[in-house]
């Protein structure tokens, strides 16, 4: 599927990469600002997740930063409404500028904390995902309240994901989640893992807790 997407959406994905690189020195949207590194290590990485998106509905990228993976989703799946949420106002401004430049009417940008927006838009998304935002346990508390029963929580992780999952084993149901499925990708040189949880019950009304609590008091202990 990735080759097909590169054939059909490669040009606009390249434009996105160049736009992302152009913010280097102005605002830190990603680590590197070199277009080639952005393409190889970030955009292509996010491209793998597109095949796991739902057939229809609304999807959410939490802590979107420079739009990874959310803008890649919006480019490759113009039929889906993609919401990009970030707590940094300048990053949200950059996301809005890039979405306008790339002519992506299916993008909505929200500035604020996920704990606050999860109360307003509770269990209204078919999928919520994040990349390089927080440890897996904390991330699940952020994401699960957004996802409707039957939907999916997605995390993109590196090889150390097993250490993050270990203390969570058998506790997924506290957030209304089934045990995760793990999808490896990236080959031997760049081992990456897509972790997917199905939402099989409503999330407890305890979650999300107040801003900052997810990092201070872990829900699984």
Report what the structure shows:
The chain is α/β, with parallel strands linked by helices and 221 residues long. It is built from eight helices and seven strands, in the order ααβαβαβαβαβαββα. The protein has helices at 2-22, 35-47, 70-76, 89-101, 114-120, 136-143, 161-165, 213-216, and strands at residues 58-62, 81-86, 107-111, 125-131, 147-157, 181-185, 192-198. It has a seven-stranded mixed beta sheet, with helices on both faces. α4 (89-101) links the parallel β2 (81-86) and β3 (107-111). α1 crosses α2 and α1 packs across α3 (70-76). The longest helix has 21 residues, at 2-22.
SSE diagram, text form:
Blueprint: H1 2-22, H2 35-47, E1 58-62, H3 70-76, E2 81-86, H4 89-101, E3 107-111, H5 114-120, E4 125-131, H6 136-143, E5 147-157, H7 161-165, E6 181-185, E7 192-198, H8 213-216
Helix pairs in contact: 1-2, 1-3
Binding site for S-adenosyl-L-methionine: 63, 68, 114-115, 131
Pfam families: GidB (PF02527)
GO cellular component, one term: cytosol
CATH superfamily: Vaccinia Virus protein VP39
- SSE string, helix = H, strand = E? HHEHEHEHEHEHEEH
Helix content: 25-40%
Contiguous uncertain segments of 5+ residues: none
- Strand tally: 7
Shape: globular
What would the keywords be for this entry?
221 residues; EC 2.1.1.-; seven-stranded mixed sheet; alpha/beta; rRNA_ssu_MeTfrase_G; Rossmann fold
